[in-house]
Structure formats: structure tokens, C-alpha cells
Give the backbone structure.
Amino acid sequence: MLIVMKPDALASDVDKVLQVIEALGFRGHTLPGENRTAIGVTGNKGSVDPAHFENLPGVADAIRVTKPYKLISKELRPEKSVITVGNATIGGSELAIIAGPCALENHDQVFAAAEAVAESGARFFRGGAFKPRTSPYAFQGLGIDGLKMLADVRDQYGLNIVTEAMDEHGVDAVAEYGDCIQIGARNMQNFSLLRYAGLTKKPVLLKRGLSATLDELLLAAEYIMAEGNYDVILCERGIRTFADHARNTIDLSIVPAVHRLTHLPIIVDPSHGTGHNYMVTPLARAGVAVGADGLIIEVHPKPEQALCDGAQALTPAQYADLVSQVRAIYDLVAEPAHAFVESN
Amino acid sequence: MLIVMKPDALASDVDKVLQVIEALGFRGHTLPGENRTAIGVTGNKGSVDPAHFENLPGVADAIRVTKPYKLISKELRPEKSVITVGNATIGGSELAIIAGPCALENHDQVFAAAEAVAESGARFFRGGAFKPRTSPYAFQGLGIDGLKMLADVRDQYGLNIVTEAMDEHGVDAVAEYGDCIQIGARNMQNFSLLRYAGLTKKPVLLKRGLSATLDELLLAAEYIMAEGNYDVILCERGIRTFADHARNTIDLSIVPAVHRLTHLPIIVDPSHGTGHNYMVTPLARAGVAVGADGLIIEVHPKPEQALCDGAQALTPAQYADLVSQVRAIYDLVAEPAHAFVESN
Amino acid sequence: MLIVMKPDALASDVDKVLQVIEALGFRGHTLPGENRTAIGVTGNKGSVDPAHFENLPGVADAIRVTKPYKLISKELRPEKSVITVGNATIGGSELAIIAGPCALENHDQVFAAAEAVAESGARFFRGGAFKPRTSPYAFQGLGIDGLKMLADVRDQYGLNIVTEAMDEHGVDAVAEYGDCIQIGARNMQNFSLLRYAGLTKKPVLLKRGLSATLDELLLAAEYIMAEGNYDVILCERGIRTFADHARNTIDLSIVPAVHRLTHLPIIVDPSHGTGHNYMVTPLARAGVAVGADGLIIEVHPKPEQALCDGAQALTPAQYADLVSQVRAIYDLVAEPAHAFVESN
Amino acid sequence: MLIVMKPDALASDVDKVLQVIEALGFRGHTLPGENRTAIGVTGNKGSVDPAHFENLPGVADAIRVTKPYKLISKELRPEKSVITVGNATIGGSELAIIAGPCALENHDQVFAAAEAVAESGARFFRGGAFKPRTSPYAFQGLGIDGLKMLADVRDQYGLNIVTEAMDEHGVDAVAEYGDCIQIGARNMQNFSLLRYAGLTKKPVLLKRGLSATLDELLLAAEYIMAEGNYDVILCERGIRTFADHARNTIDLSIVPAVHRLTHLPIIVDPSHGTGHNYMVTPLARAGVAVGADGLIIEVHPKPEQALCDGAQALTPAQYADLVSQVRAIYDLVAEPAHAFVESN
């Protein structure tokens, strides 16, 4: 249920609506817009009778939301959300570049990568301290020691830290040491973890699951937001198909679809999305050209020695080249003067 | 890495190999065979260079082990595992039937379903107290109250309780009230949860993820077993494909593949696997005919009123009919006299 | 548009309806049933106004068909179609077994296979003379020479011949030498070929495409039937998914779906559907248990020497064992006394 | 089979190898390199036993060539192929834009679309005269009348004509009236059609099948080329996956993969690839950014009245905007001065 207030509705009208929502045992989320306020209702098990609201003063419309999502919806919030991550933003007028190694391995590797990332002008550093590995016998990450290295990177380079949490303990730790909690593809429907991340104050980077539909991705974001954390960034990282020339199949059509339906930013991960070094830069260009708000890129000082996913990591030189290419494309597609932006 | 010694290798040759393994920081497991000794190497993060070994005295071959699993493997344990769940078993000579409602809703529904399940002669009762729902606004389950109902069902009907845990708190609760911890498809690669379940003493029913390969399913089982809990039952519940006539595509070919590679039992879920009432019984027959060790079936006293997945639930009468059909097929395929069993 | 006549409609009423259909520039297909006659209308580009028909004498109902298929539909013909192939039938009360080598290679191979098939009591022999091979450099089949061998097999063993045609020339040749024209998975949407096959008098075995939905399969059958050839047998042979433990993923849930929607028989191909010798027999059992009307099985006197798909071919001994297993299951599931048949 | 000679192999060693190849009934192709000579073996149906060669004097290695394609390969032809279509080229230094309606409907529609295409500066006009439709009851195209309209478009606007053929008759007709024979996705493995198209002198636009792997696409091209027609242009038009927000999933990673392996040009079809008007322009940008040699775009003077695929057709105004956007991106990525081109 979505309650749209009239442009001239009073603050007291809004309060009255919230009281009715509460009296029904539900929860109201006020979302002020430029011209009018909308109120999302959550907490209802089935559908809510619009009759409860449509005759209240100041109410323009009470809409049964047929799509099962609410808080991510552009109907609720027509303006695009700009998410603050540390001292930078994602979803605003600048292309967000999040770069770093797949897994944190040791001090030298982390700082060599951070050096390259800082030099490129990117504002965000990535690196896994807790690694979700298919095999229990593969390298599982440095854990808290890795997080501490990341905090050192932030201190030294001013980069904002994006790193994955795999469970509640991880969420607490990342919230302590990092700036943005990444939820990985395999946990996209780990609903307990989504809820827990929704209780923190840190923004969440939510990666699309390997076989997640658009609706499932949006509802996973909705899980986080329903707990009160509205700072969600979506990420396309490739889906699982029969195609075998790349590790996953990057599905770039989800970017305009997300922009059409939601106010959330979405970034693209061409590293995991392809799994091959030689494909990363072309697909990064494509991701920016299709309208993504940012990229997440794996860079490793010595890819051939990487403990994890070395085949897809860029060298610092390749990465620097990628950044200059995608910036040129971003200038072209995002510049209002060029009118390339879809009326998303 | 597997090091195969020559038939005439001396005990001192074996010792020398073990010393080299240790010096490299790994662990060696000597596996004497009839004609020759093999030495397994574990503890290595990446691959080990065979050059360390192939010129040592007595060494016939140093083989990079391509398959990454160990504990689930028939090479480790050629006999099929029979898993004890409460006072019954799965994987032995009897077809395991686990039945009950998708979600526990209230006392009457639970006990009406349990009555039907007990009458059919099935030994296991299922019912979700914690429900992983795509939408945060859908019914999420009765929680601990539901688990207590399940414990009452066990007391009254002697049925063994199989129910899902979605997080560590859930694992603790299910371990307290139930007999078998179900890990759902969406959590198949929630590695923290797998490890936590591996620390309990209760058997684990591990459902295949919607886009999980055979290797990923087996390695998820390996995560549980690596913590010391060897009582894992696999479950095929349909994968996600383009096909739209069923909710998921049941992939029955995984049953002979699992039997060929592993010693673990595998059951089939034709309810989630198809999503349509009229398909459940035919696919249950097919699941037993292909060689599954059991079935998990949704039965609901009033499917049209179900809070969750009503479209696929069977009525008690349909369920009773299914049980008689699949038992007849099981007698045919599993009876040693008929020699239908593959040399799995 | 489907026009259902009243039970007591006269032949002259039916004729009148056909005249109106013709006058509108469409084509009428009369399908007499046990209790009443139905008339399918084809040739219309958009929807047809029921008002043209509903007041004609003898007309019970004029139904806009929402599903795009007509001639395959149970609404048109509630009784199951029994297709005559040579001197035997598919879709009737006997399990149809079509067996033989993937590709015809030489006289000895063909006759050794035919010997095994005839001994098993199967009524149909398969073998490819024209082979659709992914690579132009792979063995492409014996062509007309192969078809002549098949005709010899029919003469000697009384087996009915099922073999693939890849183009119009092939359809003509198979219609001359064989008893049933197979259209392969790669040609399921070769609409020119479907139409051409629809103009022959021979039954057509139509294999599901690797990425065909149920609707697409049924509409491919509709292409053949719209030309006047109603003798179509469908075949599930596995779809393309991400799963890599089998060559394709057999989708057995399509069998009850086909039986629910159509009057056409459907058979299952566990050889191509799995691609692995050790999976063929279990999946053949499953195919029969799920309700298929028959099986198509690859058998080769020396699988290890096969020019095509040797990995999935059964030896004559394995094949004989398969036949005895699936017959036992068929007796169980199809026997009316057991009431296992779904009210499809 | 590839036989690699030692650096110090004698000419007589090479001759000896060639004699053995000939004696086996195969053909040897000597490929002298800077440091060593390699000998390719063709004409073999199955794999060749390396044992025939590896002990001959001067032989360093006898390698089973796993990749089954030859003529499309960059190893054969390192320079990129530039395909001449009428009076223009595809694969050269200009972005190829092929545009027009999905289906030809009538003179006014065709010429209104052609007007828009010509104005944009595109060099190629598309439009289906023979339409492969899922349902036999859907509009099937204008046939020869449509082809004549296309010839008129060429005469009036100087546009080169790209149109689909579905069978041999269609190939003959398109070869007569058009400039480039399109083979549609559903016919990508209609091997008889591929061979027939390989016998013409017209270039062929080969669309990737809905579930075709990269290898299968390349081998389909190989079928055409093996008949002597080397003018093949590949086309990515979306694959079938579980994702439901677009009609198909455009798989842009195939573009760098094709450029890496082959000398053939590849274009992208964002119209069929997405099926939604609002996605076409973003994905067209992405296609050019990833490195495609061209685009094929549906434009219709009145999309809402289209007889086929109206939902994805652009209006002339939207199309003009698309062209200006993709040209700007093409200038950026393809301009040698920018060094954006991969060393493909």
C-alpha cells in the first residue's frame, strides 16, 4: 500500500495517516518528495484496504501496490537516491569506481593495490577479508587482520572501504572497520543476513545472485530497507547460464530496468561478471555506456600470484587504462549537455 | 595432490615423502592399498608442484587431484552412508518419506497434516517454522512456537522432525526441538551457516541451490563434513531454467551422478521441484524410479487456504495415493532380487 | 477459434459451419469426438468474432482460444491420439520402444543393433542416415545408402523405421524408405521444414529444441498439423541449462504438462537427454514412471567404436536389461487396475 | 592434430611426417614458423592417434587440437575480415548500422522506415519478407512481394539490403533481390541451410541461436565457409536464460571473445536482444562500447501498429537519437588515437 498525499497536504494530515497505519498494526515510512509526500505502508501480511485512507484529509491516492516491492520503488521516491559511502557518494553525478584485489593476502599486496587505486582517482577500495569459497579447502581470507589492513588503507589513502560480510559477526566487524557492507551473490537471499545488515547504519552493496530475477534482487534490497537502512547500492555481477566462454553472463539490460523501476543506484562488476582479464575493460566500457552508476574492478599488483580469481584481475597498468577509457565514456553518456541520459 | 608409490617402494621411501610434505607445511595421509601405497596431501592452499615429489625414490606418480572434494567421495568411503534421523534412517533399505506442510500455520493445520503423514507409514514430518520468503512482506513463519508444535507432533505420532534453519539461532533451535536440520536452497552456499551446522550433532538435509552445479552441491556438503558432522542428506529440489511450465526444473540425472561419486544419500522434492499439484505424483514416481533414497512431499489439510505454496501441496487423499504408488515402484527398483539397482 | 457442436448436431449443421468458415477465408478442421464434434478454425490472422457462429444451428459454443495453439489441444480432442507408425502404434496401451544406433555406420553395425532391438520385443528401429553435427568436419551420415539399410532392417525384422530428416530432400527420402520422420531438436523451429513434413502422410516424431518452452514445442507441432498431418509424436530429449554433470538436463515435468494440455503422445530420450551410458537406464525408468508413452534409446553393438555419441550408447546386454526394467514399471503405472494413471 | 617439429628438425623429417599423414588417408598442411615448423592435419573424421607421430625423428610434439574450427580462426588469418555488402562494408573502420522494420508490412511503412534509415546515414536496410513466427497463425511475411519492395528501397535510397532466408527457396530469392542473406537464430543449426547459403556469392549475416555456445556459433559459420563462402558476419541477439525483465539476455561478453578467436566481424542486435523499446538505446551504446562492428536496429514509423515485435521497435526520432549517441561512442572507442582498441 502506498499513500500519496496532495501537494498542499499539511504536516498534520501526514501525522493523521501515520496514526491510522499504526492503529492497524502496520508501519509507515514517510518519504518527502519535491512536490508531494508519499507514505509507504509495511508490516501488512496481505493486502490493505484502501478505504482506510482514501477519505482522510490531504490524501490524494491510496494505491494497492501490485508489485511486491515498495521502498525501492520510484513511485515512492521519484528522485534517484544518492548514497553516501564514507566521504564520497554513489549514484550522484560522478562515476563511482570501487577497485582492489579480490582477496586481501598480505600488507604488500594490499598497499600496492591501494596505491594504484588511489592514483587513478577512484574513491573506493575493495578487498575481501572474509571470502565465500566454493571449496572449504580454498583460502578463506585473513579475517579481522584483513579488516585492519583496510582501515589502514583508508587512513593512508583516504579511500572508502567496501568489503564483504558473510554473517552477523562479519556485519559487525565490517561496520566497525569499513564504510560499506558488501553482501555477496551467494547470500543475496540469505534473508537473516539481509535483515541484520538492515539494522546497521552503514550502506550496503548488494550483489545480484547467480540465478536471481530482477524482482528477487529488488525484494532482497527491500529486506534491508524494511529494517530502516535505505542506503542500498545494487550490483550486477553476471548470472549463471549455459554460455561457457565467460565465467558468468553479464546481464547489462538489468541496468535500465533498475533505473526505470527504482531510485537505487546500480553498479556493474565486469571482473566477476566475465572471469577473464581480456574481457574486463570492454565490459567495463559497456557497463558505463549502458548507464551504470559505477564499477567494481579487481586489480592486483601480481595477478599471476593471486590466491583467488587471478585470471580476472587487472594489473595496475591495465586498470589505469580502464579508468581513463570509462571516464571518457561516462563524460559522454552522463553529461546533461549530451542528453544521453534516458528519462529513467 | 596424490602421491602414488611404486609397488616395491620401501617404508623408508614413504617416510621420505612424508617428510617433504611436512617441510612444505602440508599434511600427509598415508593410504596403504593392496598393491601399492598412496599418500594424500591436504593443507595446501593452492596447487602443489609435482616436481617436489616425482624424483624422490619409490615415487611412481604425483597426481594433481582435479576434483576438489574429499570427504563425500566414494574413494574415501565405498559403502553407502545410512544416516540416522531420530529413530529412523535415510539411505538404507527403506524408502524415506518426509511429508508435511510447507509452513506451519496453526495447531489444527499441523496436527491434521501429521495425522495424514503418520497414517501413511512415513517416518518423517516436515514443516517450516522459519520461512525464507522472497518478499519481506510475506508470512515469515511461526518461529519457536512452530518448533514447539513440531516437538508435540513427535511426541504424539512418533514422527521424526525435519525443519529448516536459516541462521545460527535457527540451527540452535532446530537442534533443540527437531531431529534433522534442513538447509534451504537459497542458503546452500551460505558457508557460515554450513560450518555452523557442521558443528552440531544433528543430521543435515542440504537442498541443492537453484543454480548449483553438482560440484557446488558436493562441496557444500563437504563444508558441513569438514567440521566433523558426516550425517548429510542431499536433496534435489529443481533448478532454475528458462522452462516456464513448472516452477523449477527437476534435474533427476543428478541422482545417479551423486550415487556414482559419493556415499551420501539423496532425496527428491517433487513439490518445490514442480510447483504444481498435478505434477507432484508423477515426478515423485520418477524420483523413486531414478533411484532416490527418499522423497520430501508437501501435504496440507486444505491446500487452497495455505499461507505458502498452496498450489503445490497435496491433499491428504492425494498424498496417500502417492505413497502407495511410490512404494510399489520402490519395491520394484530397490529389491535386490530384481537387480534393478545400478552398481552405484 | 474453436467451435463446439451440440451432441445432437446434424452432419448438415457441421457442413454449414464449415461453409461459413470458408466464406470468411479461413480453414475448418473437423474433429469428431465420442460425444460431440469440434471444429477448429485456422488461417485467421487476428481473433475471429464468435458472433459469426454462435447462432448457427447445432452450435453449442464458439470459444476464443486464448492459448495460441488449437489443433494439439485437448479442448479440440479430449481423447488421446494413438499414432500409427508402420504396423504398430504410439500413444496406445503399449509402451513404445524405439531403439538403435545414433548414426548408421555400416551393414554389420546396423544389423547387429537391429538384432538386439528385435529380440527385445521393441517395435521400432532408429538410426541416423542424415546426421546434424555441430562441426562440418564430423561424420555426416551415410545418406540414402543408410536409408536403404533401414528398409532392409524393416524387411528382415519387421521393425518400423524412425529416422531423421534435416531438409525437404530428406523428408522425401525418409517418407519413401521409412515409417516415421524424425525432426531433430535443432530443427524444431525450422518452420519451413515443419510445414513440409506436414504435407506428407507419414507420422512425425518432433524433438523438443534445446531451449524450447512448452508453448514453442506445442506450436511447432501445430505447424505440422496445420498442414493436415495430425500424426505427431512429441519427444523430450533434454534442455540446455548450466548443469554440467549431464550433457543436457532431462525435463520430465513436461510429460504431465503435455498430457494435461494436448492429446498427443510424448516419449522420452534418456540417451541424448543425459549423454552418459550410466545414466540412461535410471532416466529411462524415470521417464516411464512419469507417464511417457515411450522411449527412444541408443544401442550400439560396440559403443566404444561408435562414430557418434558413443559415450551414451548402451550395449545390447545393457539395453535388454533396460527393456525388462521399464516394462515392469510400465505395467505398474499404466495398468488401469493400479489406477496410477493421472486423469490427464 | 597439430604436429610440432623440433627446432633442429631436418626437411627430410618433415617429409617423413607428411608421408605418414598421407598414408593414413589425411592431408598435411605445412606451416613454417620462425623457430620451428608445424604441420596441420585435416581430412580426419575422428581423432588421430598421436602415437603415429610422436616417435618419428624430428617430432617435438603431436597435439590433439581440441578446438574444432579452422576457417574462422585467427591462427589461419590474423587480419580482421572486412566484409563487402553491396556498396559498403562491415568490419572495417566505420560502424555498420543496419536498420528497418522487423517485418515488411506495406509500401508506406517500408518507405517511411527507409527514409529514416537513409537520413541517419546508415548504409544498410533490414526488413523481413519471410518471418519465422512461433505460431503458424501469426503473420508470416509478404514473401517475394516484400523482397521486391526491398529492391525498390535500394534503388531509391542506395541502402544495401539485409533480409532473412528460412529455406533454400528463400536463399535463392534473397540472393536475387538483396545484398546480404540473414540466417535467423532458430536456423543457426539448420545445417542444410547453412551449407546452401555457403554455395551463394552473397555475404551471410548469421545470428546466434537462443541457446548456442560460442563454439556452436563459430562452427555454424564454419559450415558456411567450408562451402567456399567466406563472407560471414556474426550477430549477438540475446540468449535464453531465466531472467524475465528482458525478452532475451544480451551476452556482450561474446564480442571480445569472437574478436579474440576469429577474424570475422560481429554486430549486436539490441532490439531482439531486449524486446523493450526503452532498453534498445542503452544496450546499443553498450554494444558499441564493448567493441561490436555494428548494430542491427528495428525502426518502425508507427511501432504501436507493427504486425510483429512492435514493443521493441524505435520511432524514427528515437532511432535518430540512438545513431548520434552510438556514433559518439564509436568515435571514442574505435579511434586509434584513443588506443581503446583491444589487441584482439
